From TrEMBL, chain A:
<protein>
    <recommendedName>
        <fullName>Ion-translocating oxidoreductase complex subunit D</fullName>
        <ecNumber>7.-.-.-</ecNumber>
    </recommendedName>
</protein>
<feature type="modified residue" description="FMN phosphoryl threonine">
    <location>
        <position position="154"/>
    </location>
</feature>
<keyword id="KW-0597">Phosphoprotein</keyword>
<dbReference type="InterPro" id="IPR004338">
    <property type="entry name" value="NqrB/RnfD"/>
</dbReference>
<comment type="function">
    <text>Part of a membrane-bound complex that couples electron transfer with translocation of ions across the membrane.</text>
</comment>
<keyword id="KW-1133">Transmembrane helix</keyword>
<feature type="transmembrane region" description="Helical">
    <location>
        <begin position="231"/>
        <end position="250"/>
    </location>
</feature>
<keyword id="KW-0249">Electron transport</keyword>
<keyword id="KW-0812">Transmembrane</keyword>
TrEMBL record, chain B:
<dbReference type="Pfam" id="PF13237">
    <property type="entry name" value="Fer4_10"/>
</dbReference>
<dbReference type="InterPro" id="IPR017900">
    <property type="entry name" value="4Fe4S_Fe_S_CS"/>
</dbReference>
<dbReference type="InterPro" id="IPR026902">
    <property type="entry name" value="RnfC_N"/>
</dbReference>
<feature type="binding site">
    <location>
        <position position="373"/>
    </location>
    <ligand>
        <name>[4Fe-4S] cluster 1</name>
    </ligand>
</feature>
<keyword id="KW-0004">4Fe-4S</keyword>
<comment type="subunit">
    <text>The complex is composed of six subunits: RnfA, RnfB, RnfC, RnfD, RnfE and RnfG.</text>
</comment>
<dbReference type="GO" id="GO:0051539">
    <property type="term" value="F:4 iron, 4 sulfur cluster binding"/>
</dbReference>
<keyword id="KW-1003">Cell membrane</keyword>
<keyword id="KW-0813">Transport</keyword>
Amino acid sequence: MDQKLIVSSSPHIRDESSVQKVMSDVVIALLPATIGAVYFFRTRALILILIAVITAVMAEAVMQKLRKQPVTISDMSAVVTGLLIALNITAASAWWIPMIGSAFAIVVVKQLFGGLGKNFMNPALAARILLTLSWTGRMTEWITPGADAVSTATPLSFVKGQMMVPGNAPSLFDSFVGNIGGCMGETSALLLLLGGLYLIYRNVIAIRIPLIYIGTVAALTLIYSGFNFHYMAYHVVSGGLMIGAIFMATDYASSPVTSEGRIIFAFGCGLLTTVIRLFGGFNEGVGFSILLMNVATPLIERYTVPAIYGEVKKQHA
Amino acid sequence: MKFLSFKGGIHPPESKKATESLSIETARDPQKVIIPLHQHIGAPCQPVVKVKDHVKVGQMVGEAQGFVSAPIHSSVSGEVKEVAVRAIGGGREAVCVVIESDGKFEVHESVVSPGDYKLMESSEITKVIQEAGIVGMGGATFPTHVKLSPPAEKPIDTVIINGAECEPYLTADHRLMIESSGEIVEGLLIIMKAVGAEKGYIAIENNKPDAITTMLQAVSETPGIQVVSLQTKYPQGAEKQLIDACTGRQVPSGGLPMDSGVVVNNIGTAFQIAHSFRTGMPLVDRITTVTGTCISEPKNLRVRIGTSVADLIEQCGGYKETPGKLILGGPMMGIAQEMDEIPVGKGTSGILAFNENEAIIPDPVNCIRCGKCIDVCPIHLMPLMISENALKERMDEAEKYHAMDCIECGSCSYICPSKRPLVHSIRVAKSSIMAKKRQEKK
């Protein structure tokens, strides 16, 4: 036998999964909400989405060239970030808003910290917060779905400071399907849930994080309102809770890797979101909550290292 | 029926179809055997034959050195041609006894049945096993008599025969269970007598329903022995996971199965023990599965120790496409070889030939912290953390994440979507930590 045999250490077989497949699954899961955004907010949504995604991918390629690293845009992770940024802004945004957002997310939050998997914050959320703090007026210029696109308010602004849903607020059903004002991809809880089910089915995310996050918000708003189920449901389907709980709190890089840590993380997100929504200065608290928990992630991880098989309990003398 | 299991693990493609229903065939008589004098964990043997000696089947050619060692016997009758260093696979070399077979397979005078084990003391049983050169035939090749000689303060109450065969492709144990269930049960009874255990399990993954049925029939009239159906999941056949599944006990970190009152032996080992007691014949042959995409006619073969791997592949119709990788053992923990001119040893449970496409080593990318490696680790380690620290040469940190508890099953590397060399870097960490410990002792 004269041909060369490859010698490497075991295992000699690998699962067929890859980063590209995982990220593509996330893109697929975001498709219902993306299509929903285009349906509700028409061409302006489509243009903003394209700008966000193209900017993100180009920023990644340029940064990797500058850092003299292999260009890995085919792993789809920049597409996910760009798409999430587009879904996190209002359809009334100027064209340069998603451009700045995507560039900031990829260049500063992702690549400057080491690239894929090394970002300690969710890049899309960090970009959203940057944009909101820098251009608060433009970022909260909500419009109604449809061709008219007149100015409107988000469902959460109606319940702010209330202990029940006021009569003039958009209906719970409209809020659930997304026929309301808000960020392009946040509005339809239904379409986001569809994507979430797909991710769970594909084993990309565990049901735990979204379930605990949303469950915590539900439980706390229920208690706060004196068991007003309508009020609770309104909080659950409105604002960024669905997209945050399903697509952002589950971001691998910026959430704990341990399963116990993920539970604490999700609970923390839910608690902070409710506190900001009910008592804070903003109508919405999902973005800040997840970013705060992102920062707490290394600490959570340190205290949730799993007990190993056959671990001998430390003897205290 | 409830299927027992453990937490973690993976589901690689089983790839057993090609050979699982093929009866064991006896391999062609070898013209020549190359018998390595180091086929076990522990000290290598010293040769007790010299060039031009005439040897017979079952005659000792290598004498064990020390307690953790096992003697080596000739698998053919014929003339010793060489006692020299040869490649024995996995890039290793060892002194080998090269014997040219005379084709007669005369049995050596020392090969006589040691008598009924029921009338023997436990130490006598262990001695027979020791002299028969029996080692763990699942691949680890740890001398069996050492396993069966626990110190007095560690009583054994349970013996598990490992019929999980959780490695993909391999079907040697599967076929042995179907074709020689009586010997396996007898082997288990002998081991139970040797260690004074009352409870015996034969644990089989539920992807082998025919083996489960056969073994159930074989133990139907034997009290104290239970056939256990295990969920098909890798590494179900790892000692610690098997003990957990069968008894609910956990082997303490850093300890051995005997620390939890259990001894685990492979199907092939149990068969060999019974065979050696019935006939007196030491370990001179074994069953091995020759399979993989490149093998024309995959087979389960009974092979004399020392037969060349290249010969066996030829008997299986040769390579049907250019091989890219040749593995002794299973695809998860087996060892890749640089050539096929190597002898079959006591631990060769399988011979796999992969094509060039399957041999490609994927390029690793950054860890995305998906946590899949943690989910699948059967020891509940954090492979990504050990690996990250190991790659940055922070071995103290790696040790804090329990690197030394890793059983090197490879589940983490298998599942990693970033194709990171997780178990490989953990192995590096383990040997570095051990080297440091040895130095500190000095």
